[in-house]
Specification:
Elements lengths: L1 E4 L9 H9 L3 H10 L2 E3 L15 E4 L17 E5 L3 E6 L16 H8 L23 E7 L2 H12 L4 E9 L6 E5 L2 E4 L2 E7 L7 E9 L3 E8 L6 H8 L23 E9 L6 E5 L4 H10 L1
Parallel strand pairs: 6-13
Antiparallel strand pairs: 1-3, 2-3, 4-5, 5-6, 7-12, 7-13, 8-11, 9-10, 11-12, 13-14
Helix pairs in contact: 1-2
């Protein structure tokens, strides 16, 4: 057990921020410990956003490790880079990243638990090591952290907009401009909570795009993300009137295909959390995507 007395200089600062620095844990791990009851303030449970006050006594007990309630599964995944701290996966469009409603198994997380024998990044969660996610029916690159330090570092890079993330998207209609920037806040659609939408009080969301190829009634573009909101590219392109071809949630029904939305996370770059070197990865379009484009020509 460890006890910390809050000093005046720490007054009114968030508990997860102060403790992540003091304990050298990620904020996600601190938040999990608070929810678990392993961290108390003046002997009572507080919320993860509690603002500490001068002379508060914070008690930290070792969080009881909970086994991940998931079975490792021998699912074939395309690991294009791996070291002792992280790995980069080229995700198949059919693969869901982590368990959720209707997807208890057969996910990327199940596969990772089989291929990576010891995740040190936030045990007890259903998303061990997942820094960011891409939708089912979106293919391409994502980075997975193996250690707590890597998870926090990479998550902060995403938050600070210092990563490189480029997507290839096929949209309905012919975009007349060669370059575009969509700066529109995204939040839950008030008319349908299962969807996201551009809403006045949403979170800042910025997508840049450039046209690669124009077809008779479709356009191939490259999108570069400045932010990473849920369904961001899909929502933004639908918002400007050029939804993704095949998108079952935001597209037009006449273009739905067995492959879902034609969206591929092609390029991913970040600073390695241990070597401090910038590394970047690139991936080819899936064969079904290439064949669809050939049929448009």
């Amino acid at each position: 057990m460890q006890k910390i007395k809050i000093e005046e200089i720490q007054n009114l600062q968030r508990i997860d921020k102060i403790l992540s620095e003091a304990l050298e844990f990620s904020r996600s791990k601190v938040q999990a410990m608070i929810k678990d009851g392993s961290i108390l303030v003046n002997e009572i449970i507080v919320k993860t956003n509690y603002k500490l006050k001068t002379n508060d006594i914070v008690t930290i007990e070792e969080m009881e490790e909970r086994e991940i309630q998931l079975e490792p599964e021998d699912i074939d995944i395309d690991i294009i880079y791996e070291d002792e701290y992280l790995l980069v996966v080229n995700k198949d469009y059919k693969l869901v990243v982590h368990p959720g409603a209707g997807n208890k198994d057969g996910t990327l997380v199940n596969a990772l638990l089989y291929h990576v024998k010891d995740f040190k990044a936030i045990k007890g969660e259903i998303r061990p090591g997942i820094v960011h996610r891409i939708d089912k029916e979106t293919s391409g690159l994502l980075v997975v952290a193996k250690t707590d330090k890597a998870l926090e570092n990479l998550s902060n890079q995403m938050k600070d907009k210092t990563t490189t993330r480029k997507y290839i998207a096929l949209v309905e209609g012919v975009i007349p401009h060669n370059l575009g920037k969509i700066n529109a806040p995204i939040g839950r659609d008030p008319k349908n909570r299962q969807r996201m939408a551009v809403v006045e009080r949403g979170k800042e969301s910025v997508t840049n795009f450039k046209v690669l190829t124009r077809y008779a009634d479709a356009t191939l573009i490259e999108c570069t993300l400045e932010t990473g909101r849920t369904h961001q590219i899909r929502v933004h392109l639908n918002y400007i009137g050029f939804p993704l071809v095949g998108d079952p949630k935001y597209g037009r029904r006449k273009t739905e295909t067995e492959f879902g939305q034609f969206l591929h996370a092609k390029t991913l770059g970040f600073i390695h959390p241990y070597t401090n070197e910038y590394i970047e990865f690139d991936s080819e379009l899936p064969e079904y995507f290439k064949e669809y484009l050939e049929n448009l020509e």
